[in-house]
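Replying to the earlier thread about multi-chain prediction with a worked example.

Input:
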Amino acid sequence: MSAGGAYIPSSQQRHMRACMVCSIVRTFQQFNSSGCPNCESFLELANNHEAIQDCTSQVFDGLLTVSDTSKSWVARYQRLEGYVPGVYAVQVEGVLPEDVIAAAENSGVHYIPRDGSVSEALPTDA
Amino acid sequence: MSGYDHRSGSESEDEPFNPVPEVDEDDMAAQEATRRQSAVNEDEEDEEPTTAPRRPQADDEEDEEGGGDDEENDEDEDEDEEDEDDEDDVVARPAKRRKKTKRNMFIDVEAEVDEEEDEEEDDNDEIADEVHPDDLEPTGDDLDDRHHRELDIQRQMHVQKDAEELAKELDEKYRRREAQSARRAASGAIPLALPTVNDPSIWGVKCRPGKEREVIMAIQKRIDDMVRAGQRPKIYSAFERGGTMTGYIYVEADAKQEMIAVVENIPNVFMGQAQIAIEVKERPDLLRKRKRTPLEMGKFVRMIRPNLYKGDLAKVVEVHANGLDCTVQLVPRLDYGLGEDANAASDNKRKRPAFGRTVDRPPQKLFNEAEAKKRHMKHLAQTGSGNQRTFTYKGEDYQNGFLIKDVKVNYVSSDNVNPRMEEMQFFSVTAADGTETLDLVAVQAAQKAAQTGSSFVSGDNVEIYEGEQKGIRGTTVTVTGDIVTLRVTEGELKGRRIDAPVKTLRKLFREGDHVKVIGGSKYIDEVGLVTKLKDDKVTLLCDSTQMEITVFSKDLKRAADSATIGNDSEFDLYDLVQIDAATVGCVVKVDREVLRVLDQQGNVRTLLHTQVSGIVGRNRNAVATDRDGSEIRNDDTVKEHGGESRQGKVVYIHRGVLFVHNRELVENAGIFVVRSTNVVTMAAKSGRTQAAGPDLSGMNPALQQQNGGSNAMPPPPRAAFGRDKLIGKTVTIRKGPHKGLLGIVKDTMNDEARVELHTKNKQVSVKKELLSVKDPITGNNMDYGKFPNRSRGSYAGATPSYNSGRTPGWGNSSRNGPSWGGSTPTGGRTPGWGGGGGRTPGWGGDGGRTAYGDGGRTAYGGDASRTAYGGDGSRTAYGGATAYGGNDGSRTAYGGFNSGGRTPAWGASTSTTNPSKSSNTLSAPTPGAYNAPTPAAYSAPTPGAYGAYSAPTPGGPPMDAPTPGNFAAPTPGDTTGQYATPRGYGGYAATPAAAPTPGAWAETPGVDEDPRYD
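Result:
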């Protein structure tokens, strides 16, 4: 996490956005300056306003702070394992552009929408 | 995947530690951990060889891969259960390992390293079992060097490799990964790590509703601080679920104490109530995601934000690709700057309106270019051309009158939209030929979603119009939630019972069915006859309005009852309502949508309920006067003078307008409007004395006199009606702290006077009755003390002085009737009095009369007669009239008149005047005041005051003289009957002749014939 920690002062909270891939919650400025700490390798959000607009969402629900993504069951359930500690969203609305999904897949990240549209709890057989 | 389920199922049976063996999911994670561990421990000999080479590709998908490989090892694992005793120690280890692999997952070369690592771990396995995973880390660090060396070697190898070969390798690798992803995507989901007892616990902590996010951020801040201080945060995670579980945050930690330590003292966290430990089984529910119903073009939604449009119906025009924004079509709410404060400071940093609902928002209305131009020309720009009338007004786009707005998807709600017909009217589509048609498909789509079982009742005829069972018709038997059980009535399945979801059903009606609208439109509760059916739109002829309306069949039910109209209107028939600032009206018809109101001009207006600002209600004190000057109050019966001579009961009095109700009239529900000056009172409510019968003013002798040209009766002094005569008078105060002080009356109120004292420059308020009027020059008392009291109320004091001034006014009384007698127009009274004269004999004997005399007489009593009156109980009092007679010339005769029948009493009274007064309750004070002053008063000032009277006044003495004369004449008249009275009057009239009372008599006959008398 960046030096200042993941805390977002309340004055900045209205600029919060959540990454559609990893659901980390940061302000637009933070995304713009340092990108997404988990997905930067393929999302390349830093200094890219358009990418931020496309790949992060202002519409999210449930704020979640995780201090230990490996031990926390919540983090595991939210598929946050291996991500940096910080503030995440439980549910992120929005549709990731196709090419971004492809880029994610190419870098080995299987993208599962975090908007509740895919039921994760009930695995169905192929 | 199926292997998973199977295995976990089999294993769960013999998992000793699992508290809920029947829940497979719960087992899985634990079992997985076991498996992983066992794989590392015991199964290494057969597992490692297979897994190790695979791992490089497996990467983050380790679990699954392992799962696949492990299937054949299930039995082995089962036998390994005993090892799980130490699982607690190791539980974190697999996670750690996974984390490691994750970290490396983007580095290709890691594959080799991983293999290496595995071997190492294998080597260290024995240690690992005993040692806490954390302790392993240094070991790893120690080995770092070796890793690097290995890595370098690998790299060198890669470099040496042929580029082509490398490409091939990579290609193969990625293809494989893709295939895996695809497979997984097809399978729908990765199994989620369901919670076990071994995971940290979760507690629900109460917090201030709406502050959940702030609390989470505050916790984050604490975590940040701890990390910065080098401490390990005591909690693993904390989260909130906002709208769904408001008022709670959830904290994940190992121990409650640790959790409390972190959460405590954060603002808006309520630690007062115990924290709820969330059961393992319930934990996934906390993180359940709510599936948002997808927005589609053409769908109707309700606005949530902005506040101005909150709750308004909107139509989705476009859903943006990112799924976050959509464009909606709205009916704008604009006031075009009409509500703006022109003088307000021009800074834009206006204070935000209070949180919550906008108090007053303009009504929904399509955008009007002309309106916008009036005040906001500068904000308006036309952007479209041709048919598309597109404007930009104040930064918003308007198309064909609609506001086209981009909003976030979370600012609209597609749940429970339930559009009403009247809302829908705006969204009607204008066809090329100008006809407007509702986009019924859209309406249907919107309403369909909202349809629930509640609109079906058993016994409804329904049809399945969608799905495989399309076309089946039947009768509903039961409704459970959204499932309706119906008994098929037609076709092959006849008699069978079928369950069908509400969504696929529509109600079936036949032409001629009597139906009732039960919801969904403004026609709710309307009852009518089905005339036309088209799909699920039903046209019916309303019983009440005889209009045809079209509604959806789902909003109908068979009806046995008839319509009840307007049951939800706040207005009732015959309510007096405010239409605008200057107009009121009486409700004459309440319809569902409109009110018919008869306004004060007598016009019938048809108004929407919303156009009526409120009920005025009845003013109980409202008074009007009819054309005769009689007062009219609510509930009086009045009759129109002229015109149609309608009559009825006054229901409302508004200014000079009466709303009169007559049940026999048909139009306007029996209400009509008349001006109060255009009616005569027929009967007053609660027996208020009314001048019923002939107009008696003509009988007023004094009036006649005037007309008759006899100038004996001078025009009345008006003084009583103008300025209080006391003002400017020099007075002494007779009582109270200022007793004895001399002053000048500066102003008067009801019964008080402001007296400017001569002694000090000071004004004091003194009761008028405590003042004696002094002649400023002589210092003599003037009998002004009892000074005309305009409010007829207090007779006692006022009367006498009144008399002097008023006497002449008497004749005049018909004119100033209302003011004269508080209760009775004197005009009327006077004759009555005369009538009394006629009745004189009876009167004398009439105890009841006494009261009468009192009341009516008051005015009268204004005269010296008052004195008499008091005494009225017995005629003696009447005798008091003598004094009266003495009062002025005209009176003389009068007195005589009065005394006609009275003669005896009269006689007595003359002498006993004073005694009678003393016995008089009314004039209790009077005597005191009077006895003494009267003579003086009369003798002295009267002449000065009334020149005209001066002559008659002396009649004071005549009092003695004429009396006999009076006696002589009227007495017989009295005996003859009523005519005596006129004569009495005549006498009165003649009075001006004063002493020559007899002469008066001569005239009497003439008067007598006065037709008006009767």
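Residues 98-106 of chain A form the longest helix (9 residues).

Feel free to reuse this layout for your own posts.
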